Amino acid sequence: MATDPLDTLRQPVVPIAPREEFATELRGRLVEALGLSPSREEQATAAPQPAVSVYLCAHDAASAIDFYRAAFGAVETMRMTADDGRIGHAEITIGGNTVMLSDEHPEFGVVSPQTLGGTPVTLHLQVDDVDAVYARAVGAGATGEREPSDQFHGNRNAVLRDPSGHRWMLTQPIEALTLEELAGRAPDYTVEASRHEPEPEPATTADTGQLRGELGYFTLSAPDLGRAAAFYGALFGWRFDPHGPGAGGHTYTHVGNTSMPFGFHDDMADRSPHHYYRVEDLTAMVARVRELGGEVLDVTEYASGGNAHCRDDQGLEFDLWQPAPGY
Prior knowledge:
Strand order of the largest sheet: 10-11-12-9-13-16-15-14
Number of strands: 16
Shape: elongated
Order of helices and strands: HHEHEEEHEHEEEHEHEEEEHEEE
Number of helices: 8
Largest sheet: 8 strands, mixed
Distance between the termini: 92 Å
Helix content: 10-25%
Strand content: 25-35%
């Protein structure tokens, strides 16, 4: 077999990754051409959207979508058009992020930068090649406000205004700077990291991990516990566990199928609700109530644990409860 004399010049085939903007635009064209736009169900099960998203208003939303497709490789995922021809809501993705937009609806106070005569908002778009994206956007109808240039903060930036009047800052990272390096390049600014004080940890007991002073139980008053059980059992599905007469001959019933257990009683002289605060050392807390100017009206031991009926220094009544083992 004859040997090709040019074989010695042959170079190996090395795959080259395409530019992100080209890949995004090509993917968008293929998705639209093949009718593969994700359904609302597919979007709902996709990765969660950020809490804050961009929602734009354009004087001509359909033309705006065409511009974003040509300039930024946007992919339209849904559109809702009203009977009057206006787009009420549309969604596109740019670089994997959702941008929502609509036509003007001045009857609802929704107007575009063209109607307002400008915008105070700048949209930031990070790209791989700011010069190429800037040129493509201007070619698609955008107005250049600042041509691409290297900036002191380690990015190459450009600013343009799209045909709908929205301002965009295109950014291409070129350096990774520390705060100290950034401060050295920006003598007219004070550069510092934001410092947030950590939230104080809730006080817990060392042995059980229970929150000190958390609400552990409460009671509600009702003149007829049978009617209360019938009403709230049917309304919420609460299960009532009646108990015999308690202090003063009043009847009490316990509700235990809720995240926090509570009870009803028929002593209408007792304020409703009545709060029981969980404590680890009832004796120490009783002494502390007195030190702070409160009153301890009664200390009782129940099967559920020790209980102290108290009044604070303003006359409001409450109970302290040290749970017995198992409660």
